[in-house]
# Entry
Amino acid sequence: MSVAVPRGYKVAGMFCGIKASKKLDLSLIVSETPAAAAGVYTQNLVCAAPVILDRQRTPSDQIRAVVINSGNANACTGERGAQDAARMAELAAQTCGARPEQVLVLSTGIIGEFLPMEKLAVGIPSVADKLATDEASLIAAAQGMLTTDTTHKLAARQIKLANTTIQLTGMAKGAAMIGPRMATMLAVIMTDAALTPADAQRLLATVVEDSFNCISVDGHMSTNDTVLLLANGAASARPLAGAELEQFGQALQEVATDLAKAIPIDGEGATHLITVDVEGCATREAARQIAKTVAESLLVKTAIAGADPNWGRIVSAAGYAGVPFRPQGVNLRVNGVQLYQAGQPTTFNRAAVSRSIRENRETAIELSFSEGTAKIRFWTTDLTAEYVRLNADYTT
Amino acid sequence: MSVAVPRGYKVAGMFCGIKASKKLDLSLIVSETPAAAAGVYTQNLVCAAPVILDRQRTPSDQIRAVVINSGNANACTGERGAQDAARMAELAAQTCGARPEQVLVLSTGIIGEFLPMEKLAVGIPSVADKLATDEASLIAAAQGMLTTDTTHKLAARQIKLANTTIQLTGMAKGAAMIGPRMATMLAVIMTDAALTPADAQRLLATVVEDSFNCISVDGHMSTNDTVLLLANGAASARPLAGAELEQFGQALQEVATDLAKAIPIDGEGATHLITVDVEGCATREAARQIAKTVAESLLVKTAIAGADPNWGRIVSAAGYAGVPFRPQGVNLRVNGVQLYQAGQPTTFNRAAVSRSIRENRETAIELSFSEGTAKIRFWTTDLTAEYVRLNADYTT
# Structure
């Protein structure tokens, strides 16, 4: 996996003065030529100004740039917020000779404060001056979108086609306010493949279902969640089709999954990445609902933080997911050890399972049912006192 | 409000050896004559043996006793658990000359371990020897049902009828695994009024909707939730009807609400009782769904723990509740201060609101919408590091 900027893009990140911490807070992605672009957005009724703007502009075959700020979500900011988002797009468009409507905008950070537009008016031309194609610039761009994340998140895949090699490179942010159906997470995936806008939108919507919609840190759906896909065709002028499109879709799924998993791995205060595998359900949505309910149970999450193989909390969370199942058909494994079989607790070495949870950064919860063949994989974090400390002190 | 044992009942509580802590773990309530009894139970598909048993036995006009143990939930214990619950009823029936099917059983505590029946075989006759009508015995009975609660929970009302005075006295337990649609909470409400079983069941189901189904500590619906109402007619032989029945229903609602609120007040690690008032919704269920989503948001709960008037978290939680509303019609007050009006943040004194949260044990969140006239009141707790510590260390 080569984490490189795909052909035809330039990227940059810098500190422009939004964050008190002086960490990077502004990123810019520019495509030399108009790119096909697709977006998937939060379903929160209270959504941020940049989400409203981007929704109107995707899918598209004309996108030239994405401008991203962190430290301020531009959410719950009304008409002035809408003007500020539009102004960010204008400022970015001026730096690359694009029309304002060829620019998408992403914001993340505190809700309900107005953007410091004077800083962005200076910052956006400055970050444009730094646009480049090297790895350091890519990392800076990925850093400029972070809030409480402890690390930047990049993922990439290459696929070899008959005449060319396609690069997919994505960046994401997110460490809390992460619930399924998107979260305070932002992601931008760039590719030098050519795609029709319709294919870009369809593929993105599909891969989000099995990646960003399968993660939860705290179940709180954000106002700003956005995943964008840009495809500028620098590596293949003709839009992908048939087997090549399918191969691309697979690589896109892998990049999206890598980025999605990176979010709970970096979950606020998290000490464990928990994978919840649910199988044997009547439908995929039933499996998702059970996995989500287990993943969001505070009692399950605190049990894993405490290295406690408390299967009762897991099984009882499944029981209130609102999905009918036969209790006698339930099986549960934690880190490969059967704790519950056919609706009954098993005899197991509690100390050994506890040790395996404590000594591993990842915990595997496998629940199976007897209602069908549908399954899903979901990722979440444990819940620690550190999460509470971080979130009790965020603005004050 | 006189917290007394209603006429015709005797109660007791003691330590019989289930809890390592040596705190009281066994309670018995006996009615001298057969009582009308109603029950409302967990909707968790994985429910405990005593819930299955009580469901079969209510509503009834023949109940003589309720036997309650804490320290062990008798949940996920299969056929042997069912036999143990039935045996508890038999043992209790023997102490008061009742038939086994005239006894209801409640259990709470750790899931998935078998009850220590040898201790209960000795304990149930012993606790029967302590049956009395004084306040100390009532408190002991209320203590015998506790788990991680820090205090027992009693509530009472008296109503004067033409010829008699009716007493309602309830006891409850619960401090975690508390979600709407019941929680790891148990409650028994005794009255010396006479009720038909049908009226008892109808009234109990109604009052639970506005009391125990309006509280959440952690949103985790338990396997054991049960609310029982016993009405033995010792104060009025003829079943209540008409205006008297209505007056009784009002008092029952007050007792149930007092008991329900006592649960989040005693929520594990909680430093604030949060009241979430939602009004202006199209339906009561829409209001409940919004209130529940706000009440269960980790980000809202940690914000209150940190005395942070973070209205963005509250408004965005409402936004993902799955209930349609006009964002421009949303208003929010916290502790009486308007933070958000007609979909826009207001200018308010952040330090003053923060201080009012910090210095008061109760926090009032009031959300209004513009979709209709339905409203609801919901109670929850804040989320502290202490909650996490308590729940990371529960079994191991």
